[in-house]
Each structure stands twice: as C-alpha cells, then as structure tokens.
Write a structure and sequence with these properties.
seven-stranded mixed β-sheet; binds ligand MTE
Length: 312
C-alpha cells in the first residue's frame, strides 16, 4: 500500500466552522420532518439531505470540529482509488438505491434489512475523532445509532464471538476494485463485545446530513477507539461468526495492521510512530495521540489482562 503524507487542501475548500454550527442549530431546532421522510428523500437524493437526530450524553472531544469540506474530500475508500482525493472524485455515481444489509451467520433470526428501515431507528449525533492508522485525525459529527440495537434484533447465538462486516463490491462503479491492493471485498471485524459496546455507531450521516458516498454511504460503522480502517464503509453484509474473521488490512500486512487495532500511542506502526498525530488541516504532528483515542474510560475494561503490545 502506498501511504501519502501531507494533505493537499486548498483554503477555498474549507467551510468555516461557524457555518456548520449555525446549520446544525437550524437542523436541531427546526427539523420535525421525521426520520422516515428523511430516509426516503435521502435515498433519491442527488444533493445532501438533512436528517433529524438528537444529541446524546457521550462525552464530546474538546477539539474543534473538522470542516465538512475537508472531511468529505480527504478520504480513504480504496474501492474508489488509493489517493485521498479519489473517493470524492470517483464516488459520485455510486448507486445506493436500492440498498440492503444482510445479517446472518450465528443468529437465531437472520434478516435482510432495507436501508429505509435503518433510517427509522432513533438517530443521534456523536462527535467522534477519527484517528487514522496513518497518524492523522479529524473530529467529525457522525449521525447514527448503536450497532447493538440492530444486532439485538437478530439474536446472536451462543456461538457468536465476532462480527464481520463486508463492504459492497460493484466493479462497474468502484474503479479501485480493478487494482488488487486489497483482497476485495473489503472486510473488517470486531469482537462481539466490541460490536455491542454503546460507542460503536452504525452510521448513516455526518454534519447533519446523510453520508456522502465517499464517506461510506448509505451505511458504515464508526468505532471511535480504533484506527479508522476498522470502520468499514458502504456495508452490505454483517455476519456473526465464531472464529476471528479475516479482515482486509490484516490479511494484506498482518505485522502492520493487527485485528485489534486499538489506538495506542505506545505501540508504533512498524514504519512510523503512533505517539503523535496530525489533526487536519495541520501539516505537522500537532497532537499527542491518546490511548483508545481518548475513550479509555468507556472501553479499557474490554481489554483488561490483554497485552496490547502483542495484540495490537
Ligand atoms: N472502508 C472501505 N470499504 N474501504 C476503505 O478503503 N478505509 C478505511 C475506513 N473504511 C476504507 C474503509 C480507512 S483506512 C479510514 S482512515 C476510514 O475509512 C476513513 O473514513 P473517512 O474517509 O470517512 O474519514
């Protein structure tokens, strides 16, 4: 894999934070449209569609929210190309309607969920940092609901120990699939207790609107205490499985990308340090990286007794 360091962001691309905040205030107070309505328009949208959502009690990082223009133009979504600008450039024609997510494996009640059904859950905004393994980070207001609520519906059996996520694979619409940089389709996985943790967000929107294609429309997960690659985009399958699933990055380079991939300043990537990070749009490492990306209070107990240097 080729990592590119140093964002190419022109100042004209950046939306002032105040504009985002005023839009958010407008949406928080004035939107009484209902999630179902938002869902139906979202799915036929050619331009961003606002969502109805509530705030929640999850602690917010004190950091400034990253400008939307940056979070939607500096992306990793290798199905659309490996450079940071490729997803925004190439994902425009990606068709997200119709869309279903098939949930199966070790569950009592397997089901195929239409995307409209997901938009009917109570949506909430979570401002989470996304810390990429490449040592950059952003602070993004995601909108979604805890994955645990969906998994509860399918009733995992006692054999279910892991959850595997599979991204869509549409060669006609995803030019990156013709390059074998990863073993397609993109897969990721979590332990079941990680997937059921209330911080793990099944995500349908960001910045008050449905997800742009380049950020994983129509549905992705966001796991805030893990490196960004654990947060699989454009999900079409969720399987509950007994054994640790093979995952795209872990299969590509197991010594560089472990299955756990908890954000950890004490465990360097073999080719670079993870002690600090470059909070975009900065050009240099400007923040200390925090263990579990700052969510230790909520998630550290999941790893008690585990050697995090060995199980990175
Ligand atoms: N999901 C898929 N299907 N394909 C990818 O290439 N990249 C991952 C993750 N999810 C990726 C993916 C990586 S490396 C990161 S850092 C985040 O998506 C980036 O999410 P963002 O572009 O919304 O910031």
């Amino acid at each position: 894999m080729t990592y590119t360091f140093g964002p190419k962001i022109s100042s004209s691309e950046i939306t002032p934070h105040e504009i985002y905040l005023s839009r958010r205030h407008f949406m928080g107070s004035a939107l009484a449209t209902g999630a179902a309505l938002a869902a139906s328009s979202a799915l036929s949208a050619t331009s961003p569609v606002a969502l109805s959502f509530s705030q929640n009690a999850i602690p917010k990082p004190s950091d400034t929210v990253t400008d939307r223009a940056l979070a939607t133009t500096y992306n990793n979504f290798y199905e659309f190309g490996t450079s940071k600008s490729d997803p925004a450039r190439n994902a425009g024609k990606f068709t997200i309607k119709p869309w279903t997510v098939e949930i199966g494996g070790e569950v009592a009640k397997p089901k195929i969920v239409g995307i409209e059904e997901l938009f009917k859950f109570d949506l909430e905004e979570r401002i989470y940092r996304l810390r990429c393994v490449e040592a950059w980070s952003m602070v993004i207001p995601w909108i979604g609901f805890p994955l645990s609520k969906l998994l509860a519906q399918v009733e995992p059996t006692s054999k279910a120990r892991y959850v595997k996520f599979t991204t869509a694979s549409k060669p006609d619409e995803m030019p990156g699939l013709s390059y074998r940089v990863l073993d397609w389709p993109y897969t990721e996985g979590l332990r079941l207790d990680e997937a059921m943790h209330p911080l793990t967000l099944l995500t349908l929107g960001m910045y008050g609107e449905v997800l742009p294609n380049q950020n994983g429309a129509p549905v992705r997960i966001v796991v805030p205490w893990k490196y960004g690659f654990k947060s699989a985009k454009s999900i079409v399958r969720i399987d509950l499985v007994t054994d640790e699933p093979k995952t795209a990055w872990n299969s590509a380079a197991p010594n560089e990308y472990g299955f756990n991939s908890n954000v950890n300043p004490a465990v360097d990537h073999p080719r670079w340090s993870q002690k600090r990070e470059r909070r975009l749009p900065g050009f240099f490492a400007n923040h200390d990286t925090e263990l579990f990306n700052g969510y230790g209070e909520q998630v550290a107990s999941l790893y008690s007794g585990i050697d995090l240097a060995k199980f990175y």
